[in-house]
Amino acid sequence: MSAAKRKRRAARWVYPFGNGKAAGGADKKDLLGGKGANLGEMTRLGIPVPPGFTITTAACIRFFERRGRLPEGLKEQVGRALQQLERRRGQRFGDLRNPLLVSVRSGAKFSMPGMMDTVLNLGLSDSVVVGLAERSGNARFAWDSYRRFIQMYGDVVLDTGKAPFEDAIEALKRDRGVASDAELTAADLKRLCSIFRKIVLRRAGTAFPQDAHGQLWGAITAVFRSWNNARAKRYRRQYGIPESLGTAVNVQSMVFGNLGADCATGVAFTRDPATGEDVLYGEWLPDAQGEDVVAGIRTPLPISTRRASAERPSLEQSMPEAFAELQRIRKTLEAHYRDMQDVEFTVERGRLYMLQTRTGKRTGLAALHIAFDLHAKRVLGKEEVVARVEPEMLVHLLAPVFDPHQQAAAREDGRMLGRGLPAGPGAACGAIAFDAERAERLRADGRSVLLVRTETSPEDLGGMVAASGILTGRGGMTSHAAVVARGMGKPCIVGAEVLRIDEKAGVLRARSMVFREGDDLSIDGSTGEVFVGRIEPRPSEIQSALISRRRAKKPAPRSTLARFTRLMRWADSIRRLKVRTNADTPHDARVARALGAEGIGLCRTEHMFFAEDRILAVREMILAADREGRDRALRKLLPMQRRDFVGIFKAMDGRPVTIRLLDPPLHEFLPTEDAQFRALAEELGVSKRALSDLAEQLHESNPMLGHRGCRLGLSYPEIYEMQAQAIFEAAIAVRRRGVKVAPEVMIPLVGTVVEFDRLAARVRAVAEATHRKAGVRPVRYPVGTMIEVPRACLTADAIGRSADFFSFGTNDLTQMTFGFSRDDVAKFLPEYLEHQVLPADPFAQLDEEGVGRLVRLAVKEGREGSPGLKIGICGEHGGDPPSVRFFHRLGMDYVSCSPFRIPVARLAAAHCVLEERGEAGSGTS
Questions:
Q1: CB neighbours of 416 closer than 8 A, spacing ≥ 6?
Q2: What is the pLDDT of residues 684-732, one digit of tens each?
Q3: Could you tell me the pLDDT band of residue 924, with boundaries at 50, 70 and 90?
Q4: Nearest in space to 896 (alpha carbons), one of 683, 762, 759, 746
Q5: Three state DSSP letters for 793-814
Q6: Of 95, 458, 495, 575, which has the maximum CB count within 10 A?
Q7: What is the rounded end-to-end Cα distance, in angstroms, of the chain?
Q8: In sequence order, what E strands does 287-350 have?
Q9: CA distances to 3, 56, 72, 812 from 6, in Å
Q10: Which residues does 679 contact at the CB level (< 8 Å), separation at least 6?
Q11: In the prediction, which pLDDT does 438 show?
Q12: Would you say 381 and 914 are in contact if contact means Cβ atoms under 8 Å apart?
């Protein structure tokens, strides 16, 4: 036998935990997954955890390497662990009199709530359920557990789907005249088990398995396979989780929250995950199992009394001893993990058991306050505070809100449909979509969308990503919809039971009104209010405070604004990368400065040409028959361009402003409809036919790869000369007013050094003439280029010797490298992502393997040709944290992004430095 084979056979695949002892621990998440590592850690802390064992992520990886065959030695190790578990529990697996039942749950290194599969009550059969009923003295509990097991096992292992079981439950409830599952009797549930077994036989083509050991291996392999289900893949793409990690499998002895009135189940956070307040926060259900809470099947009750009412009693009121124990464990866990925890628990016959702990998902607001509260308690240092707040979380703090006056008017006008539970930050409005697929289609058509569901499930992830907000009729603050929406920073309302949602019919009913798909609603994820029609959101209070030209008095030290400001200051003291903005107007420049921009990395002059006061002159210039006609139109445009640059230079007050000369093809400035064309001919005083002939000459088969950028500048140098003159006249005028200026001129779409040299020479000639005419010392200015053509990357050494700076236009560089059209990629990109042709949308997250290789080459060779070459990036990737990490590693000088991504980029740049030091990472995944 080879050494490699002996090593594989000797591999340890199984780690038990229980009775205060556990192998592995919190530092073993790579091997045991987050859930398994934390179960072991809680066990060692003396926290009551039902015993069990963890099958490692390595076993899952080996399972896929062997193409669906179990690793060698796994069955033997599981058999020994199962015998040990039987001794600890004093029960036998598959025994008719005293059966051991287990749960089988997934548990990857990073939390993926609801994305992979779980099976509860495993070990039940037609005969074992009878023994369980006799031993427990509770026939309803036994048959309730069995019907849950058949349903979960059928769906997860036998691939029957959930819908047939749900339809059968609803039919039985209608037949019995009851509203909820809890009202079904033992006889009803026994009948339901019979119906469920027939569903399995019909849908799976096999009888429901009766052997406990066969059930166990069916569940283990199903959990392994769930690592590669569609929703898990989609979630990993959304959150950048590597495909190679695999999932652990946790087999744990069951404790039952559905044994009677002294039993319960619940989910809790050691702090409020929406605000960060230091209170136990969560929900529970009496006489229920855990899936009832997290799946949103029943609207749960509050844990703490301050959120309770006569109709909705708290755990604190109903089970004070269990509540007190939960409070004690809350403090133990927070002290141990040094962070907010998300826990699941069960109360069986009055005794509390902990089933899981993990670092809790939270909003950006909560992340900010939790980190600073722990800093105030000397638990976290300054750099740990910075590391604990994920860059994307800052989007939550800047989430839009409704104007309070418009919201109040909507209430007075009777437009408020009702309230649900406020589960996600911010406000949103949009067209109703009753399923994920429709939400994605509406979003692709450019509409804002609200995903409206009775309850969401992991299959809805695509629609949740596409939607501006999420609204569910059932579920609580820890339901799937709430947890996922908070993680995404999306407005969300759950448990809006006043709404009657019929997804199959595509109808929502409320207050005698009927709404169909495409109708508009508005939701406030902070208050839980739902409104008819559209209320357009506006910037949040913190956003307004940051960008207001008149600052309020100094904020209170513990206020959100003060803490946000301090976080950004600390991040700025750590990061190396500078952060600029993409801005084309003085207003955008002022907003960007307020949000921390250190300059403008991309000012797109074509955006100025579309303004109403100049579009006619632009069209006159485009359609001129000769140079004289173009010059006449350009003389009209010169003072307008000069005013644009004066405003931007003043707004930036000495910070660098990179101005890209005209880039798009000229046809984009022409009207497209016949009536508009006729009106233009009249305004210019020419015949429509003559105008049409001129426009026809501009037609291109592939304009984005045609006559644009520097090619336009070489064909019509007078356009770039006018723009350069406007830039330098504006700089001189602003400097005369005592304001510093730092213009940077960028020539777009260069593919050869000759293109750059010719146009740079013209810019410098205009600059010299403008300064000489004004009789002033020259304004300092660099002339650089936008690297967006693959050939420019390949010849960067030559271009770098001529250019003063490089700025990577990664949008076009991605487009040209892949051969994808940004306008048409949506037709096939979802399929590419679904089938892992690509790991992520390359227009949202930089493709490091291909596009990144070109960027790396260009940076290296550009600086070899010119060691002091300044290099930045101004594509949309400049505000994407994983892309920022790549640019940091390459040693770029700055990233440039849209104004409201600036705080994200600043914090991401700080995280890059902390990661290099080994200090970043909060475990918040």
A1: 410, 529, 530, 531, 532
A2: 777 777 777 777 777 776 777 888 999 999 999 999 999 999 999 999 9
A3: very low
A4: 746
A5: HHCHHHHHHHCCEEEECHHHHH
A6: 495
A7: 42
A8: 301-302, 341-348
A9: 5, 19, 10, 53
A10: 671
A11: 92
A12: no
Burial of 902 (0-12, 13-18, 19+ CB in 10 A): buried
Q: DSSP for 4-66, please give it.
A: HHHHHHH---EEEEETTEESS-GGGHHHHHHHHHHHHHHHHTT-----EEEE-HHHHHHHHHT
Q: pLDDT of 579-624, one tens digit each?
A: 999 999 898 899 899 999 999 999 999 878 877 778 888 888 888 8
Nearest partner of 873 among 856, 858, 847, 893, judged by Cα: 893
Residues listed for the chain: 925
- pLDDT at 876 (0 to 100): 78
CATH number of 264-380: 3.30.470.20
Task: Give the H/E segment covering residue 386.
Answer: helix 382-388
Q: Which residues contact 813 (CB under 8 A, 6 or more apart)?
A: 787, 788, 789, 790, 793, 851, 854, 855, 875
* Domains of the chain, residue spans: 3-253, 264-380, 398-541, 577-665+700-917
What are the φ and ψ backbone dihedral angles of 363, each rounded to 5 degrees? Answer: -75, 170
Domain 264-380 shares a fold with domain 398-541: no
Which amino acids are annotated catalytic?
480, 874
Kindly report the CATH number that applies to the domain delimited by 398-541. 3.50.30.10
* Architecture of the domain whose range is 3-253: 2-Layer Sandwich (3.30)
Mean pLDDT of 423-427: 82
Spatial CA neighbour of 345 closest among 361, 334, 356? 356
Residue partners of 907: CB distance under 8 A and separation at least 6: 386, 389, 391, 394, 567, 568, 571
What's the order of all strands across the beta sheet hosting 301-302?
Answer: 301-302, 281-286, 264-269, 341-348, 351-359
According to DSSP, the residues that pair with 808 across neighbouring strands are: 787, 873
Give the residues across from 871 on adjacent strands. Answer: 806
Rg (CA), the chain: 32
| CATH number of the structural domain 577-665+700-917 | 3.20.20.60
Note the pLDDT of residue 238. Answer: 66
Strands of the 513-516 sheet, one edge to the other: 500-502, 507-510, 513-516
Spatial separation of the C-alpha atoms in residues 758 and 773, rounded to whole Å: 23
The three-state secondary structure class of 560 is: helix
What are the CA-CA distances from residue 81 to residues 45, 61, 88, 91, 257 (Å)? 21, 21, 11, 14, 25
CA distances to 32, 219, 522, 727, 924 from 40, in Å = 9, 22, 45, 65, 19
Closest Cα partner for 488 from 474, 468, 458?
A: 468
Other CB atoms within a 10 A radius of the CB of residue 204 amount to: 14
**Within 13 Å, how many C-alpha atoms sit on residue 113's CB side?**
28
User: Binning pLDDT at 50, 70 and 90, where does residue 553 land?
Assistant: low
**Residue 398's pLDDT band (cuts 50, 70, 90):** confident
Mean pLDDT, residues 156-169 taken together: 92
